[in-house]
Design the sequence.
């Protein structure tokens, strides 16, 4: 199926809005909701096939820690936005889908915009080794739509944890203080799932992998408020830097 046909299939799927109200309620309550209903299986399969090819050809191993998030670890392979844009077709086209952004806006309860900082728009990450993790962190922009392309059962790690309604102070993250008096919520995911998260005010991580594999596509989006903030991007610039 070509890209035009995939976008048509996505648009037709988005016309079925029965799940949007449920997702909107969940998102407003916790800043997280599953959204696998947004994309038909043909689109999910095409995204996975392209992501598999890109992570194989252009994936770079990263093992880093960031002071801005309390020295939490990042252990993964990733393929950057520039490589995906140059060598992919499906993922860049889906990111530009106005119909998809409008559906996300219904869930979020506000306009969902393209991320103004291109390196964060879409990235692929892969966890394969014991201890691999995307450690506790916040994102610079308000929303992330994550396509779960492969993941192990929860017993093997790789599931998402998050703490809603938290504030990121890059100069003094006081990470452990964020957990005092707040619940750590966890979400089990399966291959083919999608989820939308409010990533600038939800401290979140991927629980360390013990075995198996986790492959995801992350699409970052902005809210209007993000367009007037000053973003320094130091963690993302380091994480997605050229090898």
Sequence:
């Amino acid at each position: 199926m070509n890209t035009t046909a995939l976008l048509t299939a996505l648009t037709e799927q988005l016309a079925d809005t029965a799940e949007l109200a449920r997702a909107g309620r969940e998102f407003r309550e916790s800043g997280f909701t599953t959204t696998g209903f947004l994309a038909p299986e043909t689109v999910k399969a095409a995204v996975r096939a392209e992501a598999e090819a890109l992570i194989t050809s252009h994936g770079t191993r990263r093992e880093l820690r960031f002071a801005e998030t309390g020295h939490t670890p990042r252990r993964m392979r990733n393929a950057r936005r520039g490589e995906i844009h140059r060598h992919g077709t499906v993922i860049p086209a889906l990111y530009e889908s106005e119909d998809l952004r409008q559906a996300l806006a219904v869930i979020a309860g506000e306009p969902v915009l393209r991320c103004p900082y291109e390196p964060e728009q879409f990235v692929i990450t892969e966890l394969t080794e014991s201890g691999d993790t995307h450690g506790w962190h916040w994102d610079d922009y308000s929303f992330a739509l994550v396509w779960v392309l492969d993941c192990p059962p929860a017993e093997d790690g790789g599931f998402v944890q998050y703490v809603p309604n938290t504030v990121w102070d890059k100069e003094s993250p006081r990470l452990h203080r964020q957990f005092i008096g707040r619940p750590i919520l966890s979400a089990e995911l399966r291959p083919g799932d999608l989820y939308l998260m409010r990533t600038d005010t939800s401290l979140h991580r991927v629980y360390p992998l013990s075995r198996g594999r986790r492959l995801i596509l992350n699409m970052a989006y902005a809210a209007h408020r993000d367009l007037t903030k000053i973003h320094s991007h130091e963690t993302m610039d380091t994480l997605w830097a050229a090898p």
